[in-house]
Amino acid sequence: NVHDVNTSLMTIDFQDSTLIRSHKNDFLIILNSLKGESEPTSAIRKFLAGIIDIPMPHEFFLHQNYPNPFNHKTNIKFDLPYETQVSLTVYNLLGQPILTPIYNQFYSAGFHIASINLNNLSSGLYIYKFDADTWHDTRKMLLLK
C-alpha cells in the first residue's frame, strides 16, 4: 500500500471511502487499461472492480450513443464480459461503411466508452455496428448540425 510518487511516499488506505470516491475515475482508467487474462491481471482487475464498487459485466452489451441526437461528437458505451477483440463501424443508410473508429483492437473485460467525431459528415441518421468475438449488435444515431 506504499507507493513512491516522485520523491515522496504515498500510502493508500483502501478502507478510506473518501479516497476511493475521489479517485474512482483514476481507478476505472487503470481497470480498463489492464490487458491479458493472466492470473495476476485477473486478480488486479477483480480487486480494482471491488474497491470502486463496479461489478464486472456478465454479458456483452452495446449501449445507445449519448448524446443522441448529437452535433459532431458522441460517446458509445459497451460492456465486455471478458477480454476480446473489438470493432466499431459507422454506416450510412445505404449500408456503406463510412468510419471505423475501432478496428480489431483488444479490450479488457469491463465497461468501456468510445468517443467518436463525425464532424466531416452531414446531418442525418447513421447506424453503428459493434463486433466483439462472435457477438454483434447495431444501433441508430442521429447527427444534427
Task: Write a brief structural summary.
The protein has helices spanning 17-22, 24-33, 39-51; strands at residues 2-5, 8-11, 61-62, 73-80, 84-91, 97-107, 110-117, 124-132, 135-143.
Radius of gyration: 18 Å
Using DSSP, what is the number of strands?
9
Order of H and E elements: EEHHHEEEEEEE
User: What's the overall geometry?
Assistant: elongated
Number of helices: 3
- Enumerate the spans where pLDDT stays under 50 for 5 or more consecutive residues: none
Structural class: alpha+beta
Question: Biggest β-sheet: count, sense, barrel?
Answer: 4 strands, antiparallel
Ends apart, CA distance between termini: 50 Å
Describe the secondary structure blueprint for this structure.
Layout: E1 2-5, E2 8-11, H1 17-22, H2 24-33, H3 39-51, E3 61-62, E4 73-80, E5 84-91, E6 97-107, E7 110-117, E8 124-132, E9 135-143
Antiparallel strand pairs: 1-2, 3-4, 4-7, 5-6, 5-8, 8-9
Helix pairs in contact: 2-3
Describe, in plain words, how this protein is organized in 3D.
It is a single chain. By secondary structure, this protein is an alpha+beta fold. Helices cover 20% and strands 43% of the residues. The chain is built from three helices and nine strands. A four-stranded antiparallel beta sheet has the order 6-5-8-9, with no helix packed on it. A three-stranded antiparallel beta sheet has the order 3-4-7, with no helix packed on it. A two-stranded antiparallel sheet has the order 1-2. A hairpin with a 2-residue loop joins strand 8 (124-132) and strand 9. The mean pLDDT is 85.
